[in-house]
């Protein structure tokens, strides 16, 4: 497989051609029933706002978003904290956005730790075609070492039971798996188990990164990580599961279309709103207290949104000769604050990993 020849002008043209909001992330609550040791919303978990997002605020966001939507529509992602800790708000949010956006709501999804999923909730999610991403870190031993509640009890059993209730209702879940350095050796076993047990459509395999609640959870070396996930992608392909970070690069290489990072608003197509109604390019920035604007004075073409977009490899000289240009998704995983001292910094770990990944795929 060969990487597409991409230059910065092409990348900038593609960014310009994309207009409007495509992905909206809502921090429905800051309450979580777990205290995972690698969680990046540390500030919130230590001093959470106890009330979920107010219904009036959800309505105001939906009204604003209906004026900002891209012609192709918007995906709305409900997250937290643990969004299912305020289930009535999940139901209202889906109803409000469906009502305000109509056919421009291209999808609603929930990011959950799975422990509060029950058959009746799974049935409602299935009926309303809400996609669900469950955080499951593989085998019980690995998962329970990191994902525990406030008294130290592991959450694997409840999370697996919750994810299984989705499968019982005909929902093919996505799974998000966070991997610390010491867990790499057991990763393939964990992935095989998840694929067999749940048959996820997409498996996002994410290296753990500081800052963390209980100190630093080391992440694997970038080259080691790249080789590991390329091998896992090859194996998972036979079951029809996408290993997200690799499959995205493979698609971009196969199609010859440069990849832009929609998830963190790198080119302005994403927006996050926290429980207080502050808007910004990503929840990571908002939870770090950076880049917040009031909903009423929102302008996706200026302020923090423009500064965030300026990080693009299309605008940075150091990216000009990079072998991952157009394939890196902007080198901006959520460790940016820890790695670069600023949530707007580029994470050099990710740049090294991404170049190694592209070289490995190129053979
Ligand atoms: S991997 Fe890093 S250096 Fe390379 S294009 Fe992406 S952001 Fe630039």
From TrEMBL:
Pfam families: Radical_SAM (PF04055)
Gene3D superfamilies linked: Aldolase class I
CDD domains, sorted: Radical_SAM
Keyword annotations: 4Fe-4S, Iron, Iron-sulfur, Metal-binding, S-adenosyl-L-methionine
Recorded superkingdom: Bacteria
Keyword Isomerase: no
Keyword Transport found: no
Cofactor(s) of this protein: [4Fe-4S] cluster
Database matches in PROSITE patterns: MOAA_NIFB_PQQE, RADICAL_SAM
Domain Radical SAM core: 18-242
Protein name: Sulfatase maturation enzyme AslB (Radical SAM superfamily)
Species classification: Bacteria, Bacillati, Actinomycetota, Actinomycetes, Propionibacteriales
């Amino acid at each position: 497989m060969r990487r597409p020849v991409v230059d910065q002008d092409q990348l900038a043209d593609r960014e310009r051609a994309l207009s409007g909001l495509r992905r909206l992330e809502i921090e429905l609550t800051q309450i979580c029933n777990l205290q995972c040791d690698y969680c990046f919303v540390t500030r919130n978990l230590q001093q959470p706002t106890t009330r979920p997002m107010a219904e009036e605020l959800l309505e105001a966001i939906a009204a604003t978003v209906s004026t900002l939507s891209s012609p192709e529509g918007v995906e709305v992602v409900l997250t937290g904290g643990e969004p299912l800790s305020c289930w009535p708000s999940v139901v209202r949010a889906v109803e409000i956005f469906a009502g305000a956006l109509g056919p421009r709501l291209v999808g609603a999804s929930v990011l959950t730790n799975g422990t509060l999923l029950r058959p009746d909730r799974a049935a409602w999610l299935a009926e309303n075609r809400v996609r669900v991403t469950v955080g499951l870190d593989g085998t019980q031993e690995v998962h329970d070492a990191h994902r525990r509640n406030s008294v130290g009890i592991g959450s694997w059993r409840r999370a697996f039971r919750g994810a299984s209730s989705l499968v019982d209702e005909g929902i093919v879940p996505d799974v998000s798996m966070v991997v610390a350095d010491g867990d790499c050796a057991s990763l393939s076993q964990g992935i095989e188990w998840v694929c067999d047990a749940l048959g996820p459509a997409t498996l996002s395999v994410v290296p753990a990164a500081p800052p963390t609640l209980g100190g630093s959870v080391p992440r694997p070396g970038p080259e080691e990580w790249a080789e590991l996930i390329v091998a896992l992608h090859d194996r998972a392909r036979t079951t029809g599961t996408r290993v997200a970070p690799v499959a995205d690069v493979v698609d971009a290489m196969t199609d010859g279309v440069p990849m832009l990072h929609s998830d963190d608003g790198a080119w302005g197509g994403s927006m996050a709103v926290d429980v207080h109604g502050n808007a910004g390019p990503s929840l990571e920035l908002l939870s770090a207290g950076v880049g917040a604007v009031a909903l009423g004075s929102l302008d996706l073409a200026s302020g923090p949104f423009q500064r965030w977009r300026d990080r693009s490899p299309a605008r940075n000289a150091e990216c000009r000769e990079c072998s991952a240009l157009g394939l890196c998704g902007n080198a901006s995983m959520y460790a940016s604050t820890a790695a670069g001292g600023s949530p707007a910094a580029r994470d050099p770990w990710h740049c090294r990993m991404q170049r190694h990944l592209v070289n490995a795929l190129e053979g």
